[in-house]
Amino acid sequence: MQQQFITSETVLQWLDDDEAILVDVREPEERAIARIDRSHALPLSCFVPDALPNHDGKKIILHCASGIRCGLAAEKIIQSGYSGTIYRLQGGIEDWYASGNPVMHD
Q1: Would you state the pLDDT for residue 105?
Q2: Is residue 61, in this structure, part of any structural domain at all?
Q3: Residue 104 placed within a domain
Q4: pLDDT band at 106; cut points 50, 70, 90
Q5: Does the CA dihedral 43-29-9-37 come out positive or negative?
Q6: Rounded CA gap, 67 and 96, in Å?
Q7: What pLDDT does 1 receive?
Q8: What's the average model confidence in pLDDT over 70-86?
Q9: Among 38, 43, 62, 93, which is most exposed with the fewest C-beta within 10 angstroms?
Q10: SS3 sequence, 33-52?
């Protein structure tokens, strides 16, 4: 099992190709300000690996604000026995937005 940082461009490509699920581990108040379309909310404060959306052979990508908290969520997934690679959005949603990718607002 390993963790690997990936770029915003890779995340977008994998989502467009339906190869991955994107899980946002930020808290609800952060997500209300800006979120990545097609991301699933699973805040770190109540993160349980069993609550991950169905990923049935798809890559799991985690993101947070800057790329740190998703590492804590990845560790929880590892401890639950997941044996695949967990991908982390390098720089989080901050990098996503800085790269010119759109964000949604609630």
Answers
A1: 87
A2: yes
A3: no
A4: confident
A5: positive
A6: 11
A7: 58
A8: 95
A9: 38
A10: HCECCCEEECCHHHCCHHHC
Q: Residue 57 corresponds to which amino acid? A: G
Q: For residue 79, how many other CB atoms are within 10 A of its CB?
A: 10
What CATH code is carried by the domain that includes residue 92? 3.40.250.10
Work out how many domains the chain is built from and give that number: 1
Residue 53 lies in a domain: yes
Query: pLDDT per residue over 22-68, tens digit each?
Result: 999 999 999 999 999 999 999 999 999 999 999 999 999 999 999 89
Handedness of CA 93, 98, 101, 102 (dihedral sign): positive
Tell me how far apart the alpha carbons of residues 73 and 62 are, in angstroms, rounded to a whole number.
Answer: 8
Mean pLDDT, the chain, integer: 95
